Amino acid sequence: MKLFPAERFVLSIIVALFVIDATLITLKGIRIDYAGYLVCGLLGSGVFILGQFYRNSGRDLHIAAALTSAGLFVLFTLVASVFNYMFLPVRFAIVDPLLFRIDEALGYSWPDVVTWSATHPLVAKILYAVYATSLPQLLLIVITLGFTGRRASLHHFLVTGVLGALTCVIFWIFFPTLGPSAYQTFPQWVTQVIPLAVDAGYGRELVRLAYEGVVYLTPKDTLGLIGFPSFHIVMAAMSVWFVPRHWAFRAVIWPLNALMLPAVLVQGGHHLVDIAGGLLVFAIICPVSAWLLNRMAEREKARRAPFSQSQALATK
Hints:
Elements: H1 5-28, E1 31-32, H2 34-57, H3 61-85, H4 96-105, H5 110-118, H6 121-131, H7 134-147, H8 151-174, H9 188-193, H10 200-212, E2 216-217, H11 231-242, H12 247-268, H13 272-315
Helix pairs in contact: 1-3, 1-8, 2-3, 3-7, 3-8, 6-12, 7-8, 7-11, 8-11, 8-13, 11-12, 11-13
């Protein structure tokens, strides 16, 4: 394999999470949808291997970068989602009561926001569609950065996403939240009028998982467990920050992610403070990732220096 330092870093995290997942699944006796995970794993691995084929053959280094990163992105998403489930049932106090008090102090009520959106069905449907674009946006940006030769930005994007996701998961393990949907319901007419990505049924399943844990894992029914900080907001911030600096891309991505803020609240079943938490995670992780990549580049340069010197001496 021909991997750049950032790619090796992400691959090492994927392997580490896979080992942890496999160990905990065995110890906990969790049943697995092997066929479902195999298909997802083969998809990510296939894209990654295709990227490596392009890089090793020298056919197109831009396509190689895009496919290698896209494959790593898919594989990380897979093992990270399983990793999050390994810490169910929750072992620490759920912090939703504190977040509800903060919401109240800020004058925010999730049921009121959803009920208002139900009186404006077109707005609700637009927010529902916007909410579903988070992961497709990230894959689109990975491919765009790769195909346009912006390798440094692509690797910064990849490492920021991986570290941002791990930060959200680890924080959630120690300070778990279930979100307003786990505690609040709506009149029947609300759910009949608008589609909800996170409804009362979703909330009840979160409560069950939080207290009973998981006995069967399948990629078909994996839920987003993390409430605070909101990883949807981390992803939205990544899209805005890393989108290629071209008016056509900005004209789509910027308005789309401006709408992501209310979409996360209405469709994601979040507390208001979850938004601030997601923005804070991105504001910390993005520069940390840049620093880490610089350190990787320095170490790679130092590692290659003796080899370059020996080559120079051999040609004299």
